[in-house]
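Running log. JK asked me to keep both predictions on one page so they can be read side by side. First protein, sequence followed by its tokens:
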Amino acid sequence: MKPGWETKKFGDVCGFVRGPFGGSLKKQIFVKDGYAVYEQQHAIYDQFDDIRYFVNENKFNEMKRFEVNSGNLIMSCSGTMGKVAIVPKGIKKGIINQALLLLKPSKHILNTFIKLWMESEGFQDSLKAYSQGAAIQNVASVKILKEIDVPVPPIPEQERIVSVLDEAFASIAQAKSNAKQKLVNARELFEAYLESLFANPHKGWEKKILAEIIDSNVIGLVKNSSEQGAYKEYKYVKMNNITPKNNFDFSKYTCVDATKDEVEKYSLANSDFLFNTRNSKELVGKTCVYSNTEDGPVLFNNNIMRIRFAKTINSCFLNYQFTTKLLQEKLNLMKSGTTNVSAIYYKNLQYLPLLIPPLAEQCTIVGRLEALSAETGRLEAVYRQKVAGLDELKKSVLAKAFEGSL
């Protein structure tokens, strides 16, 4: 460790107040206005304005040891653990609830320094190691947390480290924001090109309804959950195999047994157009073009309609058209049912208006869209990698700061 630095226990540099037992703050004691009850959201989102619960003056005085004052820190202690915020000046007077830990830094340590240390990978790893619970993790007892070692440089060095980190993090945040915006721009570029294609149809494009361009449409095979399993004979495609981005995903599937007639009727072939007829209101109407290089018949379930088009139709072209805002608006009008389970029936879908250019032009457009989609995907991967790299850089800078090598 750097000369002049000390290693102290967390409990020696901060006062600890764990939030009150849940029974102390039952909903029936809350009032419309009064003294604030600060919750996990205030630590997680580092904001102190949005307050849901209040107590009266008597309750506040009874629980005064849990009072929040400016300069204190609060930390989330359940589920989303270890999020830290410094209490600013001018907030509404109040107390913490059972899901928070209140920290009161001593005169030997800056609240800004201790907050940055608590955000470091070293502290966060210790927090997870000492946490309790399975599905929802909870911070270990205060007694254990107090024994965690804290690197404590002199106050001037703490001030220097905070200043350097603030400047570095501002630069990282700006770079991350730029990368995220470029990621958005890459996606928007593809979407804008796609929308413009169908907003400005060329000469020779015809307007037809869906029923005029299909050879057949079949709703899939009904198999309940007890009839599905990994050791059955035939792979069985379900609505989750159609992604929200209108692609076919065969990474996960189940299997079923089926008769010879069922296999003949419900098998999929490459270039089949799949339409998700039943799902949540948000996801119903997803489409994809089936593509598979594996051997053996693949069947599809009854939440999917298999559509086979006339020879003058490129199914990939139709799949792109189904993703446009204009068609999505028309599909939304066809949805029936609840938010949880919604459906689009063929009796309505058959009248969906479509723009149909000559087959050769359909194929050319698909080629352009696939090339642009591939380039967009490449750019997205580059920008996602940049964002991930900046996150790692932040962790690395924090680690160096508390090793004394910043």
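And the second, directly underneath as requested:
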Amino acid sequence: MTAGNHSWVRLDGIGDELLAVLREEAHEWLVAKADDLPKGSEDTDPSKREVEEVAALGRLSSGLRRGEILVPDPMLRELAARTTSETRRLDELKEEYDRVRAEHEGWTALLAHLDAAPHAGAREDEDPDAEPESIVEDDDDPVASAPGDSVEIELAGRLSDDQLRIVRGAVTGTLASRTGDLRHLHTRQDPDRELREIAALARLAFWLERGSVEVPDHVVQEVAGALAEGVAEMNEDDEIRERYEEAVAEEEAVGALAAIFSDHPPAGSSEPSSEARP
């Protein structure tokens, strides 16, 4: 449908999910812009530009509810293009999201090999109270025997280089901080436990540098578990993932809207245009 030099363009091609995102974004933007307009006679009169932006957002909000917009609309086109450029923050969110996910996967992989068991290498059908069988060392086996009942597990192939680097950095940093606080040991409620945990951190730091861990080690497992929980809480995994997913949806929605205006530039524009969508 056409109206003079303008055409009504259906938004069916954008998709229901992206349309829902656009409706919410447009409504919030309209409310914020309208709220910024002067509210009384003592306020400075709004500029023509401010009024035009609010009017354009009103047209957009109304059009999104109807499922069609009137093009060309230079002001709306400009606002859509501006919003598209502002969604560049998606790259920063993606970088943060990837970092948090790598930390989570690294700790998850490490904890999987530190989980307490009746004895390392035991089968589910074995009696946990039975005497453990001797372990024959095999140079080709990544799980090699160690003194006592412990088993040395190679981390190569179980944790990636990046995961090892992340976990190693967290452990050595925590060890440095905890040892630095030893001068306050006499103020701790349980000094013996403090020393046991620091010793466990030192063992874990050494093992990570060596590229293998010795299991079972209940104190190391507890310390590593506490570190993993602390990293998760600090990074707020769920919140970062939600922000990233929202940013992805917003960028796709705004990009789809901006494409419509790119297809219908203002009259006299030097930009190429395609025929109006039916």
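Observation for JK regarding the second prediction: The two ends are 8 Å apart (CA to CA).
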